[in-house]
Amino acid sequence: GMDGFCRFLGKILCIKLDGYCYMNLQGFRGIVDALGGVYVDVPYQLDYEDPDQNLYIHIKPGPQTLNGTQAEGFVRFRSGYVQADIGRADAQKIFLTALFKQVKNSMNVSTIAKLVEQVMTYVLTDVPLADLIIYAKELLGVDMGNISMMTMHGSAIVNERGAWLYVMNRASTLDMINTYLNPFNMDVTAANLDVLCFDGANFSSTTGNIPDIYS
Predict the structure, then answer these.
(1) C-alpha 158, offset from chain centre
(2) What's the pTM value of the predicted model, to 2 decimals?
(3) Which of 29, 135, 143, 155 is placed for a possible disulfide with 68 were both Cys, Cβ 3.0 to 4.6 Å?
(4) Which residues contact 174 (CB under 8 A, 6 or more apart)?
(5) Average pLDDT per run of 10 along the chain, which is 215 residues long?
(6) 93 has which bridge partners?
(7) Which residues neighbour 40 within 8 Å (Cβ) at sequence distance 6 or greater?
(8) DSSP string, 40-85
């Protein structure tokens, strides 16, 4: 599944993905706890309960150290954001920034041993172990000022069947690919990006015109 997803994502973004890491929620919680928690400035009161998923989120606003369970709630919470999934994506950027700082500040023999145990148990990857070690060493030397996290511009719509879709804006996506992701010595063009060649006439929406959004 991950191999297929990487091929699909690489195709529609016109880039080459060198590998993937897949981690389940148990592994996420374990890694956060292995770091001794992650210090995050929570911007809002987060309250949400979904017994079917055994998900109970109650986090007060303000600077605090989140344990694994609380961190899971922080990155999964979406119901209280005006932009829903986009708001959640923004919160995940906040968390990843805080997580990276925590990793850099808490590296010691004990922490590394705990992290390795969690990674070996819960992380699935096609990246060779030797390469992972190299990447980890390089990552610890990266300045946060040189890291960019972004969300592709687009609009959320509901189709006639009631399913929510996020339609990216082609011009903004092209600019983002060519500015940050393009490994080639020439720009990716709209023709390169339109590999799926969907026919807008086959897509109906109650909240927006897909061809107009994608243009």
Answers:
(1) 22
(2) 0.82
(3) 29
(4) 187, 188, 189, 190, 193
(5) 89 86 92 94 94 94 97 93 84 93 81 83 89 84 85 84 84 92 88 65 60 73
(6) none
(7) 63, 64, 65, 66, 71, 74, 94, 95, 98
(8) EEE-S-EEEEEGGGTEEEEE-SEEEEE-HHHHHHHHH--TTSTTTH
